[in-house]
């Protein structure tokens, strides 16, 4: 069992992990292959519950985030895609500058889109105003962006990271059943990778004070759990979360069930790089390749 | 054979394609599955030449783009990732604003990283200052961002799009041989999808006037070709490009060969969404699923 810092030091030494900017890493070699195997295993497990794989856009409209009350909840994380003016004089000044990178940084326009902070917002946006006839499930993997200031740590907390989500939209009872089933299923998947996970009650880091009450309520009603792994020094890292949103998104995006009740929703999210780090820490950077078995599909077949 | 506009209209009608913001699209259903099959086929073909699959970071440092003279060449396309200040007062003003999306748009900090405009820059950055002992090949698929103002068109010209690249670093002769081989190979792959591609001499849309001379030189020396498909109305679309950079990146990033010669480089790039559009236009949105065969691996085996 290794500490995350030890894993990262070895991967850097081997040129299997590098950083182009704070929080933005690339992977090569065996470590990259292992990450793909983990990502594929999680996709396979998701597909046993739903064939609804989506390719979500790499960004999301500000309007959708506003509708999801994102700015009141997590403004600290927001990352957006900005471009330069199309004005030729502005561009030429940058093109001919002796410090063009710095000149460009100072000349960005107001952003045209946000970079997705989570995959599931795309589901609510796509189903907005619709009536869902049966419980609707979708799954997608996407790159998510959350700015975490100086709390960045390779594989554990990136500015951008890969997230596999499974989203369920249905009745209040159906979505909670979905969430509970996945808490068990995810635990089994983690064990199949040789991890020793624990399930904890959790709360989102809602921005204070505007949304502070939400976290207390969330905890009281047990709406969020996290699957965590423990490193040798006792520090923990969440590798998956299980979230019941009640009717929050159903109301915000006017998604209804037959009979016109507002839909409830729940989602399960897996942080791919964190699974990779957990496997590397548990098995070592060499052993990992052999011992991290992809989840045997048969165990979860209907 | 369909026009791109006809394809897009049908996909929208079927909810298989949607747009969250201008130039940022998502895909579901059969169309998404077809795109994955195309992406996997292109990956398989790339892997017959190189096992060096990289996962490149989703952004890239401004410094690397400056080193690659990107700001003089294509400033018009630049897209960057910005975040908000971590100042609590700023965040609280946004969180409590009655128009938080608009407030957030106006409060973005200077960007911390650019969003990758191409995959291959990551290769030069990662190999900067190194001596390459034998021809080095890598391949990666990544999301690339290029802002094209109002020239956006779904699947054909996105603000963000998926690109599969194969990069070759070696001697002047080796990289040109690589490029020529791939021009033939890509043509075969396109034919295996039932497309009728043509190979054209091309030039990059370098920003004028700073880099205008580059395009003329590029064309004169036949350093860039594009594989194009033709729509019923005669309009063409490039689905792959084949680029010999000569020693430009080798010099900029000080990548050398044994014997201390500066390395040359070439890259081959496939626009995944454009391949999808080409297949849908050629076979129709229903027939496509059956008739678009993944590339038979055996044809390209050593």
Predict the CATH topology of the largest domain in chain A.
BirA Bifunctional Protein, domain 2
Helix percent band of chain A: 25-40%
Alpha-beta classification of chain A: alpha+beta
What is the terminal-to-terminal distance of chain A? 35 Å
Shape of chain A: globular
Regions of chain A with pLDDT < 50 over 5+ consecutive residues?
Answer: 295-302
Sheet-strand content of chain A, in percent, reads: 15-25%
Determine the oligomeric state from the structure: homodimer
Q: What is the CATH first-level class name of the largest domain in chain A?
A: Alpha Beta
Radius of gyration of chain A: 21 Å
Strand arrangement within the widest β-sheet of chain A reads 7-8-13-11-10-9
CATH superfamily of the largest domain in chain A: Bira Bifunctional Protein, Domain 2
